[in-house]
Amino acid sequence: MLLKSGQRSAVSSRLFASLLLLLLATSASAEADGHLRVLAASCAACHGTNGNSAGGTPVLAGLDAAHFRLQMKAFRSGERTSTVMHRHAKGLTETEIEALAAYFAAQPRMSAFPPKPLGKL
Amino acid sequence: MMQRRAFLKLLGATAAIGSFPGIARAASVKGRVLIIGAGYAGATAAKYLRLWGGEELEIVLVEKSTTFVSCPLSNLVLGGSKQIGDLTFNFSGLDRYGIKRLHEEVAAIDAGQHKIRMESGDDIPYDRLIIAPGIDFMWDKLTMLDNPAAQEAVPHAWKAGPQTVNLRKQLEAMADGGVFVIGIPKAPYRCPPGPYERVSQVAFYLKQAKPKSKIIVLDANAEIVSKKGLFTKAWAELYPGMVEYRPNSQIVEVDVGNRTVKTEFESVRADVLNVIPPQRAGKVAQLAGAANIDQRWCEVDFLTYESKVLPGVHIIGDSVAAALPKSAHMATSQAKVCASAIVSLMQGDAPDPQPVFANTCYSFVSDKLAMHVANVYRYDPTKKIMLPAEGGGVSEMPSEQEGNYAQYWAKNIWSDVLT
User: Fold this and answer.
1) Nearest chain A residue (CA) to B395
2) The pLDDT of residue B29
3) Which residues of A58-86 are buried (b: 16+ CB within 10 A; e: fewer)?
């Protein structure tokens, strides 16, 4: 395959970008062994285990990392209005938001399993 | 659920875990973690130990009750928009994680020997012990209520279940024009906004069914403990003239027969009386000798939730002595820090030196309107405690949108804890 130098650099920068993403994802999952897995799991009360919501809130599992980051920044700045999310977004550092974006993007989407209430007692 | 003998036999056998994505990737840890108490904190710890500790870790969950009744949303049973059965679950959703359950009372804890003794007399050894017993009531402060008959006549309804249903039935039986009196203990107690949500729910019911009735709030605290402005406004706007709030009104005596209470200042007679007693760490924490703060709450290391007085014993949930709200979300967050730290420790690694987690807590002021208090909490390495981060706070006003989020908060946290 013959490529002109401009094309070549476009390909290599794309390659670099995906390598970087891979690296980030890997380091995110390594990090996830400690600090990050607890922070991410703290979102589960509203967004389900590993971001697989049981309904009523967005599914974070497999969510595009850039989209996650932009929404969190918009909650933070007030550009996107919210009931609760601005509070959490403001309480997190930019690094934490980046790490959470990569963490949730890497989670497989699965159905949540809401437990069945025992009903009439 | 299984019988004790079968269970003890099973303790020696290998856990059979259905394939569950997320476990496969986890590093495997060997050893036995024993968890006493399967409320929000204990059940969460069991599940996340499996997710993070891998398949070889043995996880044993000891809980005397075979059902889980959610305290969050239980005030809605008083308001009439929920039934207790809507909030009651069994633990079968945890079986696929290969968590061994034993539904029996614990008789003793020998932290020195790393074992617990069951009521049956059997000993179960452990490598790490997690105690998540919730709260216990300090009946010694209200001795007149220290018997089942008195608690039937004057329910606390501060552990969801039959007590909640009892209080609802008493409200249903009350005549229009009756007086509902609620006594609130000094903080800290389980669920800081809970008593005020209860007032709102009772008002919601009475406004529809018995509009001439009245609510008297005897609060031992100097002011409403949580979401003060929001509750005050909601009572004035939604239930005008119905709620009378009296601060600094600690109940010191209860005349059960006459449903009359005494505070330092006055005597108040009720038609339906609900006294929420002062609280302390749950019975098992007391039994273990872990409640070292005023013999009430358990002091822990906030990196691991290991007891400051009992090495190898971790305490999570409402029993912990902390300036953290005793909420369900908080209990699950503490459970996750603890589970993660135990996995690290059993792998020979240091636990995360700076945990961060969130708390979101909703309160309903009618069947549909709710409001939140939400905070991120961050470990402060100098003070060695969890401190609220920037940005936390409460809703501007209750809304239906938040009511909807609150219902889904429940559905999501139940899924996270129980399945």
Assistant:
1) A83
2) 81
3) ebbbebebeebbebbebbbeeeeeebbbb
Nearest to A117 among B88, B358, B390 (CB): B88
- In degrees, to the nearest 5, what angle opens at C-alpha B246 toward C-alphas B241 and B249? 155
- Out of A47, A49, A90, name the one closest to residue B391 (CB): A90
Closest chain B residue by Cα to residue A40? B357
The structure tokens 């939140």 sit at: B372
> Cα(B359)–Cα(B350) distance, rounded to whole angstroms?
25
Domains and CATH numbers, chain B: 4-136+280-351 (3.50.50.60), 142-277 (3.50.50.60)
Distance from CA of B141 to the nearest CA of A (A): 33
Contact B299, B309 (CB under 8 A): yes
Cα distances (Å, whole numbers) of residue B82 to A85, B165, B199, B398: 27, 11, 16, 19
The structure tokens listed for B379 are 């470990």
Tokens 């090495």: give the residue.
Answer: B311
Structure pTM?
0.91
- Residue B318's nearest CA partner among B372, B279, B359 is B279
Q: Which residues of A touch B (CB under 8 A)?
A: 33-35, 37-39, 41-50, 53-57, 83-84, 86-92, 96, 108, 110, 112-121
Residues A54-68 pLDDT 10s: 999 999 999 999 999
Q: What's the average pLDDT block by block, 10 residues per block, for chain B (419 residues)?
A: 51 48 62 98 98 95 98 98 98 96 97 96 97 98 98 98 98 98 98 98 98 98 97 98 98 98 97 98 97 97 98 98 95 98 94 96 98 97 96 96 98 98
Contact list, A41 vs chain B (CB under 8 Å): 48, 336
Q: Sketch out chain A's domains with CATH numbers.
A: 34-109 (1.10.760.10)
